[in-house]
Amino acid sequence: MNLIKKFLASEDGPTAVEYAVMLALIVVVCIGTITNVGTKVNASFNTTATKIP
Fold first, then answer.
1. What is the dihedral of CA 32, 35, 40, 46, to 10 degrees?
2. Which of 13, 20, 21, 16 lies closest to 4 in space, CA to CA?
3. Percent of the chain at pLDDT above 90?
4. CA dist., res. 30 & res. 25, Å (int)
5. CA–CA distance from 32 to each of 21, 22, 38, 51 (Å)?
6. The pLDDT of residue 21 is above 70
7. Could you tell me the pTM of the whole model?
């Protein structure tokens, strides 16, 4: 029980949670950006492929 109290009283717990939340947000933004760019590149390749005889 004392170990849990020490962990909750220290700054390590909240700091780790904050870093985890920031990392999760960065990952979500990266995945969204990569998906969006991939869709646009795919459309561009398809347009080019249909114009080539």
1. -170
2. 13
3. 58
4. 9
5. 17, 15, 10, 29
6. yes
7. 0.63
